[in-house]
Amino acid sequence: MSTTSPSPVSAGATTPTVVTCGADMFADAVAGQAVDVERVDWRPPMPGTEADLAAVATDPRRPDANRRAVEAMLGVTAHLVDVAPASEVLGLEKGQFLHAGPPIEWARTSGPLRGALMGGAALEGLVEDPEDAVALFESGSSVSLEPCHHRSAVGPMAGVVTPSMWMWVLEDRATGKRTYCSLNEGLGKVLRYGAYGPDVLARLRWMGDVLGPLLQAAVRGTEEASDVTGILTQMLQMGDEAHNRNRAGTLMLLRDLSPAMVTSGFESKDVGDALRFVGGNDHFFLNLAMPACKLALDAGRDVPGSTMVVAMARNGTDFGIQVSGTGDQWFTGPAQVADGLFLGDYGPEDANPDIGDSAITETAGIGGFAMATAPAIVRLVGGSVPDALATTRRMHEITLAENPRWSVPVLEFQGTPTGIDVSKVCRTGILPQINTGMAGAVAGVGQVGAGLVTPPAEIFPQALAALAQAVPGRSL
Description:
- By secondary structure, the protein is an alpha+beta fold.
- 35% of the residues lie in helices and 23% in strands.
- The chain has 3 domains: 2-40, no CATH class; 50-73 and 301-469, CATH 3.90.1700.10; 75-290, CATH 3.90.1710.10.
- It has 16 helices and 19 strands.
- The strands form 6 sheets. Strands 7-9-8-4-10 form a 5-stranded mixed beta sheet. The chain has a 4-stranded antiparallel beta sheet with strand order 13-12-11-15. A 3-stranded mixed beta sheet has the order 1-2-3, with helices on one face.
- β8 and β9 form a beta hairpin.
């Protein structure tokens, strides 16, 4: 497709300018004839979305609804206000388990989610041997499964939360709203990757007996609450993207909390062990970045007519999204296996499909959307530095705004692409880019690699159709 228009080159003379979209071959041929060519990156919309795109595009509520959703999201500042057991802050009772992603029943759970649930059951004393938990979950008589998102929480990878686990508590002081996330265990054979061996359970018990209470004392004993949103702002300037690279964020958190940890009155050995654990775990801050992003996105929920995505989450079987204008409804499709780099002798056949609530970071405009802030991330997830820069630029095509707090130095401090727009995804065919860890497909294995993944394309037309049906006055 092309069009031409005259372009003045000198008094009384013109030369044509050709605007092209689609295949580059025609543009290259015309440019070879010394004609000015302006290339437009145009793609056909996702198949079958034309009528719904037209309906949503003409929804009179949409421009203001998206403006209000974005402004609400960008107006949130997350502060770390407490650390406490899930039984206290989430009301979890014995036998109740939270998990990452949209709702799922035991029969459909993936290996890593099963492994994490089995380990969680042993941690809570429901079984002595994690292997015995299989019969417990198959019966379903004394246990229940519920998404973290349904209780204002998020969980990385399997995302399993049990009553005794300690949770970060973040608050937006302007509204008093709060979000929650468990403490980060580190990498390798850990519960969130589906491992449940004796070393995993021993670490979790130490976190419950020592680390959680110590962090609680430190948070409550710190005069000024840590500004998690502010730390995110700084770490993006320091080479982190806040999903798979959190080194600077972890050290800034340690800076904020370590004085109060040292003066907390806890045994010096416990303080030393905790400082070493946090300082040696570059991903420790991830579990604060995630609830900070959820706190912001939850502020943009439930705006009628808004096409902004407010959650992307995976349970290892399904990938689901929620949209501001459609309430709590999940739109789901099959989770994909990430393409990336593997640990040791592991390969694609060993990896489980994508899992975790950590895509809340991309939903908020960081993580895979901010790869240009952290070009070193490609050494973990694959690709190249130019790929990282191109990814951030491409995500601007499917988002509603830029976040002025979170800027990208290498892109002239442009704000990160923020507010995924369902209609733009369907119109362009560009899918959100997520960088992620990969869990082993078999329960108990743990982490096998890290890589890049996108949501299943079909979930965005599903959401678009629901938005189109809700347009006032539309005849069905």
